[in-house]
# Entry
Amino acid sequence: MKTIKVFSFILSFVFFATILHAQKIQNVQMANYKDVLAAKDRQPIVIVNPPNPDVVNSLTKKGKIEVLQAYQQIIGNYNDNMKALVKKFWTFNSKEVLFKTRVELNEMLKDKSQLDKYVLIYCYSWGPLYKSDFDWKVDKWDQIYGTQTNFAIGLPNERPFYLEHVHLIPTPTDLAEYISKANYDFTYILNHKDNCSFKEMISENRNILGKKTLLICKKAISPKVINDVSMYYPCPYKVVDSIEMEHAITTGDPTCAYAINGGGSCYIINCADGASIIYTDKGVGATYTNDFELRKDFFIEIANDCKGDKKK
# Structure
């Protein structure tokens, strides 16, 4: 079988705009209390995406069956992951999760009385923030390509109030991370209405760090920086492959936390509940791969913040 090439055709100026966008999203630390309060009592709808009929028709007419199958698998995997992981990790309210296509949703919302009944969970590609969906296309050479994608939570016909930068294909790790992190952040916001700050949340969660093994993905760190980790990081850690990292995050491993670089800021997040334990804008910088590297300065910053901790 031919290898199907999946790539993103993005010009250099768009690439830099993407990095700036990621930084902007990561720096919006807390959602608005009013929006979160509204979402608490609403039924969640996950927007699923059927394959683009224009793409399907074009590839079918050209006899590009292998490309068509690869395209359908990308969309199908995404939908399956969204369904499974929202069901597993969405705990912000106990209402039954619905799954609708954008067409089905728009039909429902023709009745304006429905607008205040739902909260939407979805991924979108570039376009109007609350109308565009996750989608891949086929170029003139009949190769699959995707554009920048973001994970979003919002109210119908409004801009999303919660955004996270995703890469071209939202992976199970991405979705589990963002759903669990949203749950934690939203609950924190509701419980700290009069004193709600991301900095204060990090301060409250700081004591979790020494009780967890920090997982660092091999793809997100250079061999040289791995040596720096042992010198500076004051708590237990383990360098793992992407499979082990995904397993810990998607199962909510209670013994581990993980480090990520979102392009504009670095986090350590608790696998069990999505709580942010450490946050810094040190050691950032995007690479040209699908992974943002963790840098030496990140671990130095943690060491300075964690003086007094002892590595177990």
